[in-house]
Amino acid sequence: xxxxxxxxxxxxxxxxxxxxxxxxxxxxxxxxxxxxxxxxxxxxxxxxxxxxxxxxxxxxxxxxxxxxxxxxxxxxxxxxxxxxxxxxxxxxxxxxxxxxxxxxxxxxxxxxxxxxxxxxxxxxxxxxxxxxxxxxxxxxxxxxxxxxxxxxxxxxxxxxxxxxxxxxxxxxxxxxxxxxxxxxxxxxxxxxxxxxxxxxxxxxxxxxxxxxxxxxxxxxxxxxxxxxx
Length: 229
Fold this sequence. Notes:
Helices cover 41% and strands 22% of the residues. The chain is α/β, with parallel strands linked by helices. The protein folds into 2 domains: 2-119, Rossmann fold, CATH 3.40.50; 126-224, Winged helix-like DNA-binding domain superfamily/Winged helix DNA-binding domain (Arc Repressor Mutant, subunit A). The strands form 3 sheets. It has a 5-stranded parallel beta sheet, with helices on both faces. A hairpin with a 4-residue loop joins β7 (139-142) and β8 (147-150). The longest helix has 20 residues, at 107-126. The relative contact order is 0.11. InterPro entries: CheY-like_superfamily, OmpR/PhoB-type_DNA-bd, Sig_transdc_resp-reg_receiver, WalR-like, WH-like_DNA-bd_sf.
Protein backbone atom coordinates (compact mmCIF):
# COMPACT_ATOMS: atom_id res chain seq x y z
CA UNK A 1 0.00 0.00 0.00
CA UNK A 2 1.39 3.39 -1.04
CA UNK A 3 1.26 6.16 1.54
CA UNK A 4 0.01 9.43 0.06
CA UNK A 5 0.14 12.90 1.61
CA UNK A 6 -2.87 14.92 0.50
CA UNK A 7 -2.37 18.67 0.98
CA UNK A 8 -5.82 20.25 0.65
CA UNK A 9 -7.44 22.96 2.78
CA UNK A 10 -11.04 22.13 1.76
CA UNK A 11 -12.21 19.39 4.12
CA UNK A 12 -15.12 18.35 1.89
CA UNK A 13 -12.88 17.94 -1.15
CA UNK A 14 -10.26 16.13 0.91
CA UNK A 15 -12.81 13.71 2.40
CA UNK A 16 -14.26 12.80 -0.99
CA UNK A 17 -10.84 12.42 -2.59
CA UNK A 18 -9.46 10.44 0.34
CA UNK A 19 -12.32 7.97 0.01
CA UNK A 20 -11.60 7.47 -3.69
CA UNK A 21 -7.87 7.07 -3.09
CA UNK A 22 -8.47 4.59 -0.28
CA UNK A 23 -10.62 2.46 -2.59
CA UNK A 24 -7.68 2.33 -4.98
CA UNK A 25 -5.24 1.12 -2.36
CA UNK A 26 -3.70 4.33 -1.01
CA UNK A 27 -3.08 5.07 2.66
CA UNK A 28 -3.96 8.79 2.81
CA UNK A 29 -2.71 11.35 5.31
CA UNK A 30 -4.50 14.71 5.09
CA UNK A 31 -2.68 18.00 5.68
CA UNK A 32 -4.82 21.16 5.67
CA UNK A 33 -2.03 23.71 5.24
CA UNK A 34 1.49 24.07 3.97
CA UNK A 35 2.87 23.97 7.49
CA UNK A 36 1.02 20.74 8.30
CA UNK A 37 2.40 19.21 5.12
CA UNK A 38 5.97 20.19 5.94
CA UNK A 39 5.63 18.86 9.47
CA UNK A 40 4.33 15.54 8.11
CA UNK A 41 7.42 15.26 5.92
CA UNK A 42 9.87 15.53 8.84
CA UNK A 43 12.47 14.11 8.99
CA UNK A 44 12.78 12.35 5.60
CA UNK A 45 9.39 12.14 3.96
CA UNK A 46 8.08 9.80 6.68
CA UNK A 47 7.67 7.00 4.17
CA UNK A 48 5.27 8.74 1.78
CA UNK A 49 5.23 7.50 -1.79
CA UNK A 50 3.50 10.54 -3.30
CA UNK A 51 2.58 14.10 -2.26
CA UNK A 52 -0.59 15.50 -3.84
CA UNK A 53 -0.24 19.26 -3.37
CA UNK A 54 -3.06 21.72 -3.97
CA UNK A 55 -1.54 25.14 -4.64
CA UNK A 56 -4.43 27.11 -3.13
CA UNK A 57 -3.35 26.91 0.51
CA UNK A 58 -4.42 29.30 3.30
CA UNK A 59 -1.07 29.89 4.98
CA UNK A 60 1.63 29.74 2.30
CA UNK A 61 2.00 30.02 -1.45
CA UNK A 62 1.70 26.55 -2.93
CA UNK A 63 4.77 27.02 -5.11
CA UNK A 64 6.79 27.97 -2.02
CA UNK A 65 5.58 24.84 -0.25
CA UNK A 66 6.58 22.74 -3.25
CA UNK A 67 10.10 24.15 -3.13
CA UNK A 68 10.39 23.45 0.60
CA UNK A 69 9.12 19.89 0.14
CA UNK A 70 11.72 19.23 -2.52
CA UNK A 71 14.50 20.44 -0.21
CA UNK A 72 13.37 17.96 2.44
CA UNK A 73 12.64 14.85 0.42
CA UNK A 74 12.79 13.27 -3.02
CA UNK A 75 9.21 12.03 -2.70
CA UNK A 76 7.32 12.64 -5.97
CA UNK A 77 5.09 15.74 -5.88
CA UNK A 78 2.01 16.18 -8.05
CA UNK A 79 0.68 19.73 -8.07
CA UNK A 80 -3.03 20.44 -8.33
CA UNK A 81 -3.64 23.86 -9.82
CA UNK A 82 -6.30 25.94 -11.53
CA UNK A 83 -3.60 27.66 -13.59
CA UNK A 84 -3.48 26.06 -17.00
CA UNK A 85 -0.91 28.27 -18.73
CA UNK A 86 2.41 26.71 -19.67
CA UNK A 87 4.48 29.30 -17.77
CA UNK A 88 2.82 28.39 -14.46
CA UNK A 89 3.37 24.70 -15.11
CA UNK A 90 7.03 25.21 -15.97
CA UNK A 91 7.47 27.27 -12.79
CA UNK A 92 6.11 24.38 -10.74
CA UNK A 93 8.34 21.86 -12.50
CA UNK A 94 11.36 24.10 -11.93
CA UNK A 95 10.60 24.03 -8.21
CA UNK A 96 10.76 20.23 -8.24
CA UNK A 97 7.25 19.02 -8.96
CA UNK A 98 7.12 15.74 -10.86
CA UNK A 99 3.75 16.33 -12.49
CA UNK A 100 0.65 18.50 -12.34
CA UNK A 101 -3.11 18.20 -12.70
CA UNK A 102 -5.24 21.14 -13.78
CA UNK A 103 -8.63 21.78 -12.14
CA UNK A 104 -11.25 20.69 -12.82
CA UNK A 105 -9.72 17.26 -13.28
CA UNK A 106 -11.11 13.83 -13.97
CA UNK A 107 -10.58 11.36 -11.13
CA UNK A 108 -9.31 8.77 -13.60
CA UNK A 109 -6.73 11.26 -14.86
CA UNK A 110 -5.56 11.98 -11.33
CA UNK A 111 -5.25 8.29 -10.47
CA UNK A 112 -3.33 7.64 -13.69
CA UNK A 113 -0.81 10.34 -12.84
CA UNK A 114 -0.40 9.13 -9.24
CA UNK A 115 0.16 5.55 -10.38
CA UNK A 116 2.63 6.74 -13.03
CA UNK A 117 4.90 8.60 -10.60
CA UNK A 118 4.58 5.77 -8.07
CA UNK A 119 5.64 3.13 -10.59
CA UNK A 120 8.53 5.25 -11.76
CA UNK A 121 9.84 5.69 -8.21
CA UNK A 122 9.64 1.97 -7.46
CA UNK A 123 11.38 1.20 -10.75
CA UNK A 124 14.25 3.59 -9.99
CA UNK A 125 14.77 2.08 -6.55
CA UNK A 126 14.72 -1.48 -7.86
CA UNK A 127 17.06 -1.06 -10.85
CA UNK A 128 20.35 0.52 -11.65
CA UNK A 129 22.22 1.28 -14.84
CA UNK A 130 25.67 0.10 -15.93
CA UNK A 131 26.69 3.39 -17.56
CA UNK A 132 27.90 6.10 -15.23
CA UNK A 133 28.23 9.16 -17.41
CA UNK A 134 27.05 10.64 -20.70
CA UNK A 135 28.88 13.53 -22.39
CA UNK A 136 27.41 15.65 -25.16
CA UNK A 137 29.68 18.58 -25.91
CA UNK A 138 29.46 20.89 -22.89
CA UNK A 139 26.67 18.79 -21.35
CA UNK A 140 27.66 16.20 -18.74
CA UNK A 141 25.10 13.75 -17.37
CA UNK A 142 26.14 11.71 -14.33
CA UNK A 143 23.71 8.79 -14.10
CA UNK A 144 24.45 7.39 -10.60
CA UNK A 145 24.15 10.78 -8.90
CA UNK A 146 21.52 12.13 -11.32
CA UNK A 147 23.48 15.36 -11.76
CA UNK A 148 23.73 17.46 -14.91
CA UNK A 149 26.16 20.24 -15.72
CA UNK A 150 26.79 22.53 -18.69
CA UNK A 151 30.33 23.86 -19.11
CA UNK A 152 31.02 22.75 -15.55
CA UNK A 153 28.07 24.58 -14.01
CA UNK A 154 25.48 22.41 -12.27
CA UNK A 155 21.94 22.51 -13.64
CA UNK A 156 19.33 21.32 -11.11
CA UNK A 157 16.66 19.18 -12.75
CA UNK A 158 13.52 17.51 -11.48
CA UNK A 159 13.19 13.74 -11.48
CA UNK A 160 11.27 13.60 -14.75
CA UNK A 161 13.43 16.22 -16.46
CA UNK A 162 16.53 14.16 -15.71
CA UNK A 163 14.89 10.94 -16.88
CA UNK A 164 13.81 12.58 -20.13
CA UNK A 165 17.23 14.07 -20.84
CA UNK A 166 19.04 10.84 -19.99
CA UNK A 167 16.76 8.85 -22.29
CA UNK A 168 17.31 11.14 -25.28
CA UNK A 169 21.05 11.41 -24.57
CA UNK A 170 21.54 7.66 -24.76
CA UNK A 171 21.02 7.82 -28.54
CA UNK A 172 21.80 11.31 -29.88
CA UNK A 173 20.27 11.98 -33.28
CA UNK A 174 17.72 9.17 -32.96
CA UNK A 175 14.08 10.22 -32.99
CA UNK A 176 12.12 8.97 -29.99
CA UNK A 177 8.40 8.68 -30.61
CA UNK A 178 6.19 10.48 -28.10
CA UNK A 179 4.58 7.18 -27.13
CA UNK A 180 7.98 5.63 -26.44
CA UNK A 181 9.12 8.54 -24.28
CA UNK A 182 5.91 8.50 -22.27
CA UNK A 183 6.20 4.74 -21.79
CA UNK A 184 9.82 4.84 -20.61
CA UNK A 185 9.81 8.05 -18.55
CA UNK A 186 6.28 8.00 -17.13
CA UNK A 187 5.82 4.21 -17.22
CA UNK A 188 2.37 4.56 -18.70
CA UNK A 189 0.66 4.48 -22.08
CA UNK A 190 -2.01 6.95 -21.01
CA UNK A 191 -2.51 9.48 -23.81
CA UNK A 192 -3.12 12.46 -21.53
CA UNK A 193 0.54 12.47 -20.47
CA UNK A 194 1.48 14.02 -23.84
CA UNK A 195 0.89 17.58 -22.66
CA UNK A 196 3.09 16.93 -19.63
CA UNK A 197 5.84 15.79 -22.00
CA UNK A 198 5.68 19.07 -23.92
CA UNK A 199 5.99 21.09 -20.72
CA UNK A 200 8.99 19.05 -19.56
CA UNK A 201 10.75 19.54 -22.90
CA UNK A 202 10.17 23.30 -22.69
CA UNK A 203 11.48 23.35 -19.13
CA UNK A 204 14.62 21.41 -20.09
CA UNK A 205 15.40 23.77 -22.96
CA UNK A 206 15.07 26.75 -20.63
CA UNK A 207 17.13 25.30 -17.78
CA UNK A 208 19.97 24.09 -19.98
CA UNK A 209 19.85 27.38 -21.94
CA UNK A 210 20.25 25.31 -25.08
CA UNK A 211 16.93 25.53 -26.94
CA UNK A 212 18.34 23.70 -29.97
CA UNK A 213 19.52 20.70 -27.94
CA UNK A 214 16.14 18.94 -28.08
CA UNK A 215 14.58 19.06 -31.51
CA UNK A 216 10.86 18.59 -32.09
CA UNK A 217 10.14 16.21 -34.95
CA UNK A 218 6.66 17.33 -35.86
CA UNK A 219 4.06 14.61 -35.70
CA UNK A 220 6.55 12.05 -34.40
CA UNK A 221 8.44 13.00 -31.25
CA UNK A 222 11.80 14.41 -30.15
CA UNK A 223 15.49 13.85 -30.67
CA UNK A 224 18.61 15.20 -29.04
CA UNK A 225 20.94 17.11 -31.34
CA UNK A 226 24.43 16.63 -29.94
CA UNK A 227 26.26 19.98 -29.59
CA UNK A 228 29.67 20.28 -31.19
CA UNK A 229 31.22 22.30 -28.36
